[in-house]
Amino acid sequence: MFSIDELVVYPAQGVGKVERIETQLIGGVETELFIVRILSNNVTLMVPVENAVNVGLRSVYTQEQAMEIYAYLRDRSDFTGYSGQNWNRRYREYSEKLKSSDLRDVAYVLKELILIGKDKELSFGERRLLEQAMSLISLELSFALQQEQAEAKKSIEALFGDILHAKEDEDAADAD
Predict the structure, then answer these.
(1) Domain containing 159 — which CATH number?
(2) Digit-coded pLDDT (tens) for 77-94
(3) Residue 26 and residue 103 share a domain
(4) What would the pLDDT profile of 119-164 be if each residue is shown by its tens digit?
(5) Residue finishing a domain among 59, 77, 102
């Protein structure tokens, strides 16, 4: 399935590297484990080999899949916004999507929050989710496209440049 030194993605944690595969006695049962070190925060995860797919462990997206994520972020046709939905419900929905093994779900959260931020000030919780989504996406895309994470983040921000720059201009005007 996965091999030593392979880059993998663990939902809500991001890109990690399979450091080793070992067998440990857990609850009296010998269990084969992937030992994965998450690159962004140096956390080590032990993922049972037989359960890896069920918990969402997967390979890093390919270059083609990364380009599909950029296309998805560019497409605003599925934007639902915050039409009457309270923040609690959105927060739970977005938190669940950030735990998904599908990067498109994470991209959905990023896109929604950036577009919502166009019309209203994001709360502290919303900004935290936005930062988490941006970090997860930009890191994986940087590996998929073999570039620095900062470069991937700039590319994503460029897709929303009209919105992000308008918000910055508005904030600067309010400060004056």
Answers:
(1) 1.20.58.1290
(2) 888 776 666 778 888 999
(3) no
(4) 888 889 999 999 999 999 999 999 999 999 999 999 999 998 866 5
(5) 59
Spatial strand order in the sheet of 58-59: 44-48, 29-38, 14-26, 7-10, 58-59
**Residue 79 near residue 115 (C-beta atoms within 8 A):** yes
Cα–Cα distance, 45 to 127 (Å, whole number): 27
- The pTM of the full predicted model, rounded to 2 decimals, is 0.87
DSSP annotation of 61 reads P
> What are 85's strand-pairing partners?
none
Residue partners of 35: CB distance under 8 A and separation at least 6: 18, 19, 20, 21, 22, 44, 45, 46
Enumerate long-range contacts of 86-93, CB under 8 Å, 24 or more apart: 87/123, 87/125, 87/126, 91/125, 91/126, 91/129
CATH number for the domain spanning 47: value is 2.40.10.170
In a domain, 169, yes or no: yes
101 and 89 inside one domain: yes
